[in-house]
Design goal:
Keywords: Methyltransferase, Restriction system, S-adenosyl-L-methionine, Transferase
Largest sheet: 7 strands, mixed
InterPro entries: C5-Methyltransferase (IPR050390), C5_DNA_meth_AS (IPR018117), C5_MeTfrase (IPR001525), C5_meth_CS (IPR031303), SAM-dependent_MTases_sf (IPR029063)
Radius of gyration: 21 Å
Number of helices: 11
Shape: globular
Strand content: 5-15%
Helix content: 25-40%
Protein name: Cytosine-specific methyltransferase
EC number: 2.1.1.37
Strand order of the largest sheet: 3-2-1-4-5-7-6
Order of helices and strands: EHEHEHEHEHEEHEHEHHHH
Enzyme class: transferase
CATH architecture of the largest domain: 3-Layer(aba) Sandwich
């Protein structure tokens, strides 16, 4: 049986792609305009054609000549207009042009299905204006569209990460979103089999030395030779002094006055709870003052590999480039396990 072909627009490092691959889909091509992130995508998806170009400069009809019979288009276009008010908002506004490019791609390739992912605000900003504009844009192309916010923690990802999804089908059926699972995955179940390294420590590759103690660890270790991207930030002396003052399960509320910074971020200088889940992993998870990113028991922030585990990336997925780029790759990704749930509903509908 032929695999369904997927196109990943605004691909990042490929979180959506990974979810679809895990359900047997094939990624025909991906577009990611940030060169070093596109390079990382390519190294992890060697069979996929990757275009490291700005989608607004790409002739989609020429791409269609090269890549025929696309079954699914996925992607998370950026949008700048969510905070705007007034009647002149439009999906055709230049600030929101990338949404239009996604709809244009669907118009050109006419896939059987599409998945558009974005921040939850896309459904509510300006009294739902963008939601209606996006749905109307797809309905005019003949798609039946459903939209909903999903939380990754409801699907086995150890992280409170909410994302909005628009899913559409061309066969006339309304795709129902997956139902939340009962069991949550904890931080302990996600990362405690990784080496307990201190601030400033790490190396290119670690053998697995600890046994797995959760199904989640077993799943993410599958087909991996070991542990990559596990370098701990070399925190400053003052940062280490502060971290040493924060016991397990606590945060900056226990710090003496002279150590309390004025950070605006929730969870700053607070430890992750080993039996809880993480807050949303952002692109600055190496800094205690940027949010809830401090290890539950070690005096340091998360490594790229620990953050990737919390995002549900397999250990066999390696992040390339500078540390800043790697953090961006991890922090901006759709959790593959959440993407897998979306891929499942599409596959089930296709196989009806």
């Amino acid at each position: 049986m032929n695999k369904l072909k997927v196109v990943d627009l605004f691909a990042g490092v490929g979180g959506l792609s990974q979810g679809f691959i895990s359900k047997g889909f094939e990624i025909e091509f991906a577009i990611e305009y940030i060169k070093d992130i596109a390079h990382s995508y390519k190294l992890n998806h060697p069979k996929t054609t990757v275009y490291d170009e700005d989608i607004s400069q790409i002739d989609l009809s020429k791409l269609k000549d090269k890549h025929k019979n696309i079954d699914v288009i996925v992607g998370g276009p950026p949008c700048q207009g969510f905070s705007q008010k007034g009647k002149r908002l439009s999906i055709n506004d230049d600030r929101n042009f990338m949404f239009k490019k996604f709809i244009d791609a669907v118009a050109v390739f006419q896939p059987k299905y599409f998945v558009l992912e974005n921040v939850p605000n896309v459904l509510t900003t300006a009294d739902g204006f963008f939601k209606e504009e996006i749905i109307t844009g797809f309905e005019e192309l003949g798609y039946v569209v459903n939209a909903k916010t999903l939380n990754a923690s409801d699907f086995g990802v150890p992280q409170n990460r909410k994302r909005a999804f628009f899913v559409g089908s061309k066969n006339g059926t309304l795709l129902e979103f997956p139902k939340p699972k009962k069991k949550k995955t904890t931080i302990k179940e996600a990362i405690y089999d990784l080496p307990f390294i201190a601030s400033g420590e790490g190396c290119e590759f670690f053998e697995y030395e600890k046994p797995t103690n959760s199904d989640y660890q077993k799943m993410l270790r599958k087909n991996s030779k070991g542990i990559f991207n596990h370098f701990a930030t070399n925190h400053s002396k003052i940062a280490l002094e502060r971290l040493e003052l924060i016991p397990k399960g606590k945060g900056r509320e226990v710090l003496p006055k002279e150590h309390r910074t004025k950070s605006i971020y929730s969870g700053t200088w607070s430890r992750l709870l080993e039996d809880g889940i993480a807050s949303t992993i952002t692109t600055r998870f190496d800094t205690p003052s940027s949010g809830l990113f401090t290890h539950p028991i070690l005096n340091r922030c998360l490594t790229v590999r620990e953050a990737a585990r919390i995002q549900s990336f397999s250990d066999s997925f390696i992040f390339y480039g500078t540390k800043t780029s790697q953090m961006k790759q991890v922090g901006n990704a759709v959790p593959p396990l959440l993407a897998k749930e979306i891929a499942t509903i599409i596959l089930n509908d296709y196989n009806k």
